[in-house]
TrEMBL record:
It is found in: Membrane. This is SLC13 family permease. It is a multi-pass membrane protein. The keyword Membrane applies. Its main location: membrane. InterPro entries: Cit_transptr-like_dom, DASS-Related_Transporters, RCK_C, RCK_C_sf. The keyword Transport applies. Pfam families: CitMHS (PF03600). Keywords: Membrane, Repeat, Transmembrane, Transmembrane helix, Transport.
Amino acid sequence: MTFAQWAILGILLAMIVAYASERFRVELVAMAGLGAAFALGLVPVQAVFAGFANPAVITVAEILLVVAALAQSRVIDTFARRIVSRVHGETTILAVLCSLAALASTVMNNIGALALFFPVTLSVCARLGLPPGRMLMPLSFATLLGGTCSLTGTPANLVVNDWMVSQTGANMGFFGLAKVGLPVMAVGLVWLVLAAPRLLRAPANAPAGNDVGPASFLTEARVPDGSAAKGLHLPDAEARFDILVHGVVRNGAHVFARRADIVLAQDDILLLEADFALVDQLHLEGALAPAERHEGTATPERSEAVVMPDSFLLGSRIGDIGLFAEHAIRVVGLASRRHRIEGRFADLQIGVGDVLILEGDREALGTTLAEGALLPLSRHRPPRLNARAATGVGVFATGVLVSAFELIPAEIAFGAVVFLLAATRCLNLRTALQELNWPIVILLACMIPLGLAVQDTGAARVIANAIVAWLPGEQPLGVIALVLFMAIAITPFIDNVSTAIVLSPIATSISARTGVALEPLLMAVAMGTSLDFLTPFGHHNNAVVMGAGGYRFRDFPRFGAPLLALCCLAALLALDLMV
């Protein structure tokens, strides 16, 4: 292998490690990788920013703007609520919710589909007195299944189609992926509806009744004068009050000693994890006290909210977020899926799917939730359907049909949709551009030149030759299965867009080496990047529902592994018919 081939593979490997660590923002990792590739001469200067002009990137931005318009109109949310209000029984309602979410995900980004149906599902759970964990994981998986059927279901599909066009000149078509995605979605939905009531009987940490979100939160508390905790050894205090203490701060410094040797003293600050209702009770009993006094209002209100993928708070430390200080909002609890708890509460970083307990004035809370892209975990009445909602849906449907029949390219069709939505005031373009999920756009634009570098340096050909050499024979279905399993194996560790960009040139080289048609191989890449059911961190949707549903890591493979096996079988059977 040449230096260029080793270099591009090294950069991609380093990026995978950075993505998996979750210590850095994904767009910063992508920009750093692109910068390193340019510095080493792997990406020419004229190609550094070419990704921003790529049709796939433009289409993704347009779809995100269209989703914003539909979310503002609440038309899908209202439609779903009306249907759900007419059906009864947990299984039936789950079938309706999952089917509607999957259907919506076929024509819009699956993250947007989840955001639309998330509050609907929470309201249904509250009405039925069910833990949200009974429905949120199936809902997330349903949006991923729906995303396998069209080009706009997930940005990875647009990447794969763009690669198909660049290599063959042929377009897969708007619903071309449905030849494989539709049977996968059908099989998957049947499994979700039949298995969820049995396998998700009592998700870990899931609350019941009208309470939503996780029960165990990280928070900070002080040992007041006269506290029953004063003078207790740390393990004894944990056992007595049913809390888990991650750190003790005394006189502004961390107490570093064996846990059994730490004796709690007055005014010690504890970084602890516990049921938040229990924390409130300990405050009332005088065993603990708030670490800080809230000055915003005498009787502050609380709101529990989940951090969405497009929130600008991602990666920020709690104590550094100006939005909270601006509105006199205090974060009093954090349910995080990060396992490393270090420093003070203010030092904790916010990630996708984390659940925050915010405290402050009611109006300020509403403003903070809206500006921070935080989804409240509470029941709320949807606003009345506005008069322009029907116009917006009609314009969007027209754009989908025009693109589906390939009358004009997708980026032109959805560009016209955005223009018409803005012209008819169905979309506030200024607000939508400010709230656009820019990390996804930047990530995609930076990764595309790196994907081309994998092809141009010959690294894809070297990898393809090594893979083919290990195959027992050049059976088309075996080659397709290998590509599918590669995508499934990589996606949990990096986002599906990056997986599609890295594997598309490799699939192209495998096609040239084995003679297997390129289209089914690229479709296998697209399917594999969407079938992410084993981990909470492989796809944003899984991360979002993990915090709100109170799931643990093991809940995902326990429920998702059989679903993955069924979907792989359905995908291979459909792909076999194409070769």
